[in-house]
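Exercise 7b. Backbone tokens:
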């Protein structure tokens, strides 16, 4: 039986940030206990009779650090009851600086959480204000120190580049400020301006200038140089890690492995099925009070599901694995899995992308070139 990853979505936030397009809610804190019970029920439903092995858990959001330790314990008890959790499992929780103190971090560490991902986003006050983040950089420094004090030493920090008004110098300042915290992992994301967000409205009414894609590319390149100089391995398009600290949970996604998405609005991929769970927390809780579950990997809260075709599985494998910069896609493993050579299926686009120096084929592996890192979406589009 293949080892799974579990993603657990916590949809609660104190405040919705200006750029946020995630399934989050700011006025439903009174639902947290019922929501924890519903998540525990969903764990029971999808697990069925088999205790599938699990090697990573990831509490994402929203702001998972708004959940009380007792509420997290309800969920984790269900996971341990119905799945076989590896002794070395990576158990991550996303947290916002300013939502945690030493007592809280010690309590969640005692529950088994051994990795925290802090949404820092910037060290510059004006940039944090633009994003409508509720914390300042001093709160991020404190949060990292407290996590280590509580015994959690595997720490990721998120930063955002490509923001309107952000300069190369202000970005370099944020990267250097975060490097001084010595996290084991860094995720650097280019700001995506999504429809329906405040930042999209500000752009449309001229309150902020449009982002500059050339500047964003320069910011990405600069960060890559700074992180390499500090010993970080650039192992995925947007992710850097100290040796041995790559995010095991996200590697499941990038290797197109199987994971269960649990919680309102979560997505999952297991047993050849892709599915999504209903988004609205109240509807989610109500659905999980139904007794009859459809069976692994689906729960009564699933809104839609789709059995993947062979061509979809091939494309998913190719696109996800190309995100891994050193690892790339192993040609022999692809052929063994699908009974067809990658070049038989995708020969023409691969040939073209190699010619354009966006892909390289060496040691039996297909990889993005450093030029391809900057144009990865265009590369992936060629295979859709």
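Sequence design result:
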């Amino acid at each position: 039986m293949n080892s799974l990853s579990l993603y657990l979505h916590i949809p609660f936030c104190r405040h919705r940030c200006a750029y946020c397009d995630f399934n989050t809610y700011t006025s439903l804190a009174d639902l947290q206990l019922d929501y924890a019970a519903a998540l525990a029920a969903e764990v029971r439903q999808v697990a069925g009779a088999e205790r599938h092995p699990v090697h990573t858990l990831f509490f994402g959001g929203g702001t998972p650090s708004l959940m009380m330790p007792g509420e997290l314990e309800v969920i984790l008890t269900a996971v341990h009851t119905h799945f076989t959790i590896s002794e070395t499992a990576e158990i991550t929780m996303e947290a916002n600086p300013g939502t945690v103190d030493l007592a809280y971090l010690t309590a969640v560490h005692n529950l088994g959480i051994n990795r925290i991902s802090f949404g820092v986003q910037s060290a510059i006050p004006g940039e944090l204000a633009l994003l409508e983040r509720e914390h300042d950089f001093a709160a991020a420094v404190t949060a990292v120190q407290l996590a280590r004090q509580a015994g959690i030493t595997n720490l990721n920090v998120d930063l955002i580049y490509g923001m309107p008004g952000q300069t190369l110098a202000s970005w370099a300042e944020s990267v250097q400020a975060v490097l001084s915290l010595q996290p084991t992992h860094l995720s650097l994301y280019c700001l995506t301006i999504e429809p329906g967000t405040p930042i999209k409205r500000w752009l449309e009414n001229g309150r902020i200038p449009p982002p500059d894609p050339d500047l964003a590319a320069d910011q990405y390149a600069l960060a890559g140089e700074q992180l390499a100089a500090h010993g970080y391995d650039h192992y995925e398009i947007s992710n850097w890690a100290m040796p041995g600290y790559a995010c095991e949970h996200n590697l499941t996604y990038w290797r197109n492995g199987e994971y269960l998405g649990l919680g309102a609005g979560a997505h999952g991929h297991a047993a050849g099925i892709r599915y999504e769970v209903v988004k609205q927390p109240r509807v989610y809780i109500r659905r999980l009070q139904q007794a009859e579950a459809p069976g692994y990997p689906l729960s009564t809260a699933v809104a839609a599901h789709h059995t993947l075709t062979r061509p979809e599985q091939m494309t998913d494998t190719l696109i996800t694995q190309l995100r891994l910069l050193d690892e790339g896609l192993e040609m022999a493993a692809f052929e063994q899995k699908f009974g067809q050579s990658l070049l038989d299926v995708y020969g023409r686009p691969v040939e073209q992308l190699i010619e354009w120096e966006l892909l390289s084929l060496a040691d039996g592996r297909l990889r993005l070139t450093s030029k391809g890192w900057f144009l990865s979406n265009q590369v992936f589009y060629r295979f859709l």
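Instructor comment: Residues 4-253 form a domain with the TIM Barrel fold (CATH 3.20.20.70). The two ends are 30 Å apart (CA to CA).
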